Amino acid sequence: MARRTVVIVGAGFGGLAAAKALKHANVDVVLIDRTNHHLFQPLLYQVATAALSPADIATASRTLLRGQANATVLMGEVVAVDAAAKVVRCADGKAIAYDWLILATGAAYSFFGHPEWAQEAQVLKTLDDALDIRARLLGAFERAELSGDPAEARKLTTFVVVGAGPTGVETAGTIAEMARMTLRRDFRRIDPTQARVILFEAGPRVLGAFTEPLSAYAKKALEELGVDVRTDTMVEQISDGVVQAGGEIIEAGAVLWSAGVAARPAAAWLGAEAARNGAVVVGPDCAVAGVENVFAIGDVASYAMNGAPLPGLAPVAKQQGDWVGRLIRARLEGRPDPVPFRYKDWGTMAVIGRSRAVAMLGGLRMTGLLAWLAWSMVHLMLLIDFRSRLIVYVNWTWAWFTKGRGARLLTRLP
Amino acid sequence: MARRTVVIVGAGFGGLAAAKALKHANVDVVLIDRTNHHLFQPLLYQVATAALSPADIATASRTLLRGQANATVLMGEVVAVDAAAKVVRCADGKAIAYDWLILATGAAYSFFGHPEWAQEAQVLKTLDDALDIRARLLGAFERAELSGDPAEARKLTTFVVVGAGPTGVETAGTIAEMARMTLRRDFRRIDPTQARVILFEAGPRVLGAFTEPLSAYAKKALEELGVDVRTDTMVEQISDGVVQAGGEIIEAGAVLWSAGVAARPAAAWLGAEAARNGAVVVGPDCAVAGVENVFAIGDVASYAMNGAPLPGLAPVAKQQGDWVGRLIRARLEGRPDPVPFRYKDWGTMAVIGRSRAVAMLGGLRMTGLLAWLAWSMVHLMLLIDFRSRLIVYVNWTWAWFTKGRGARLLTRLP
Do A186 and B63 touch (CB under 8 A)? Predict the structure, then answer.
């Protein structure tokens, strides 16, 4: 019988875990991703705020799977799935046949019915996004210094962040910290500590998925860092760097968007049932109903546990990927299915600046330095290879002691 | 009397050394550069071949001068000098007045009367150049793997390097090493070790500035790495990835240019005497004749010692910058000029792959591991701040032991 093929689309936490779980299976594994690397997204905001370099949080997928003889890594963009023919189609026309298909393409941002805002506001999803944001932030201070005009400088160094989930909170907090602490001595004509950071949130609390006391703690930490927090405020308009929200008009040097997550169009590819945010609805075994041998994991999937969808977190994707890999292997080998998938909660954390954080783990609630240490440990363990851990550790330690921004490179004014 | 201003154009080895030498002078120092960082160019080829990351070899100029109260750093592009009005003009129209001017703008590449080749071949001068080359190299292997067609793969992974000075030799050697060693296990459909690297040199020897035995050693080391070395061969045409040289037609996946260095147009800005390669002719004190209080240092200057111009090396720029800074300070303070400038030769080195190198220091000639160690030490000492040294050391050690390519990131196929 011909050797069969598992095609995995997406080299994030889910896709990579599934590939690795199939290491010893008698099957060919083809991993397709739009980039050539696995990206550690939880730390992407640190690349965007010039604390870490891209290579600190990303590793070539080939490097990660070089020791796995049955794994082929391809760099390509999947645009369609022909479930009847059991083939995925790439943007360049190539078709790749599968016996099993695992979709792990993750999520993207949505703009609440204002797709034109994608040109106005920057999202943080890929390394290119992070480098664009970094260039915009650093460039704002450079232009301000060149101009030497206080009014111009103030406008240039006004930064708006939309959406107070973990990403928005982490980003807003570190921009404020960068302006008030890191850059303080670096400029002569302007005072970088006069930069403004405004965080808009449509809901009543920052970190709405956390408990109320943790939300309140995070809000206070943000304000102590100098962030202007505006909850219960929806953004009405963004145009040419001008943000209209809560009845106010703000001229901003950069607008960062971290509200409104929507899943990538895998459900549309399959003609399958989609959840409200576009995610593919899957069964308890991560399988997509109505198509044969197709699974969806991670942020692209809507997996219900105890009546509610699992959150879009890295440990969810990783555990699902590993489980589905083991399931496919068991079926190939004629063994019984593994124990039904059960998500083990590693906790939810968000960090605000250098030493403030909030964390929830089961019934535990942590704030401050303890939460920050827990956050650091979990993230270091999640980092996929030893070299990244060592490098990130060195860079963090250096940044901690020197309050520095290690990766502040700008090749031209954007 | 109003405080006077020294304007320094260029934040390379020369410009930064001059700025630092003026730290305690009673003068304002304005350092202008097109980018926001100081770049360690000798290691740029390692970013281009994905061994190091940009942040490993570049540091924000503001960070380097943050502790120097009299230094202002501006990010801008100088396009003209009005020596009568004592003003430099930037691309955006800004004019910056000086009492003393130090030009340290370095060199660029020339294409021997074929400016159209600038679209065909990539040079290695800035971080952007290095990242473009890296994308081109990595992308070539990715496209080859996607195609799966041996003939297509061979064409894609044929790399041509023009110019066998240190940069060309170092680059060609590491590309060959990357293909034969680092990437060997990473691909399934193609054999990366079948990649071709061809190094063209118009002159009779590689590393023409070195002695004949060292040239011969380098050529042998290159050939052992699998580089096809073609001396006495001029490139006649480059068009659409097709290189015509020595009567042969070669279809290449990437063409890298490291022949023909020409200085940036500072001489034209000043209307001053230029050497054959465009460099500004300066006197023994690095001053430009015919204009008041203007100095030129490093690769942009042609400084004659013992009848021949000093080479375009980092230690030359650094020593000249430091000396001119001290000269200006002495004149400001009414003290005698420092002892006349005398270049101290730190040696010339070139590295070929992981453990081969050639070095000349005074009368000493070194090859092999000894030269490589000397090269490593000198470069580590030249690296401008401690953090870079530590990070580069960790990355080098890791790369050495794992024969890996630490910074192999590609966000989209170029």
Answer: yes
